[in-house]
Amino acid sequence: MRPYTFAAARSVGEALEQARDGSAYLAGGTTLVDLMKLEVISPAHVVDITAVPLRGIRAGAKGLSIGAMERMADVAGHDLVAGPYPMLAEALRQSASPQIRNMATIGGNLLQRTRCGYFRDPATPCNKRSPGSGCSAVDGHNRSHAVLGTSDACVATHPSDLAVALIALDARLSLRGAGGERSLRLADFYRLPGSTPHQENELRPGELITGVAVPALPWARRSTYVKVRDRQSYDFALCSAAVAVNVRGGVIGEARVAAGGVGTRPWRLPAVEQALKGKPMRLETFQAAVEHAADGSRLLSRNAFKPALLRRTIVRALVHLAG
After folding, report:
1. What are phi and psi of 291, to 5 degrees?
2. What is the domain count for the chain?
3. Of 138, 190, 239, 291, which shows the fewest CB atoms inside 10 Å?
4. If you compute the radius of gyration of the chain from its CA atoms, what whole number of angstroms results?
5. How far is it, in rounded angstroms, from Cα 302 to Cα 299?
6. Would the pLDDT of 234 be above 90?
7. Which domain holds residue 42?
8. Res 21: pLDDT
9. 87-116: pLDDT as tens digits
10. How high is the pLDDT of residue 232?
11. pLDDT of residue 1
């Protein structure tokens, strides 16, 4: 770990005043500290925001709001989340380990960096870590890497389970920076890698995520999050699916479907949603609806199994909701 200066903030205003070029915010620290130890990132200045009052879980006519400094474990177990939005609670409970969920924050979870081993190894080329150096995963060990949204410059998957569920629910971020406050759909927040994979999102220099807003969706009570991984504890998704359905008289009126573990960002699947709409809630419907879920996939040497796994994972989630 390289030397850096340190400051602590007690308000959003203080945090923004402390921010400068080459600085980083410290919340739970479960990603930042690891990457600093590996010297994958080396901020010149660290601003501790653990005392900044960005907490609270509230529900109203417009939906659910969650403060960015809320801990993952607290959100997963909250009555306003677990009952009305099961997919959120399940996505959080299947993330990381209990110890990390007790420390990590909602804002930090949405900003966590990829688990690609090449990104986390400064001895190997990685365009996301060192722009222009190349992507070692394209011809390397790429079993866990993305098949959707990739480019010649990067094939790393997005690691957040929570982001997949939030994008299925069309959530928005509240952001605050030197230029004031703004709101942005989470689906518009994450960038595709293209030729600039080091530019991962739309966060401006010094800007903070202050909260997450989930629109009211009464039928989200019938939702789930299915995660497929190599081991059941503390592992990242090979594939995941966040699914919610509105069923009336045995027929699907509306659906929300998003996938993780297969894309360079959380991947909403509107074609699958549309294919489910107006169809009976049964296995044949599910199997037909996912036929084109992986359209546009770009396969690598070791991850050609992912399109089929994606289709099966969505069907598994739908079967679970069908009882």
Report:
1. -55, -35
2. 2
3. 291
4. 19
5. 8
6. no
7. 5-48
8. 87
9. 999 999 999 999 999 999 999 999 999 999
10. 87
11. 84
Q: In this structure, what CATH number is given to the domain that contains residue 245?
A: 3.30.390.50
Q: What's the mean per-residue pLDDT of the chain?
A: 97
Residues paired with residue 63 on neighbouring β-strands, in sequence order: 60, 215
Those residues with Cβ within 8 angstroms of residue 78's Cβ, 6 or more apart along the chain or in another chain: 57
Say which CATH number the domain at 17 has.
3.30.43
CA atoms of 254 and 271, how far apart (whole Å): 12
Decide if pLDDT at 320 tops 90: yes
* 61 lies in some domain: no
Dihedral pair phi/psi, residue 174, rounded to 5°: -100, 125
pLDDT digits (tens, 9 = 90+) for 150-160: 999 999 999 99
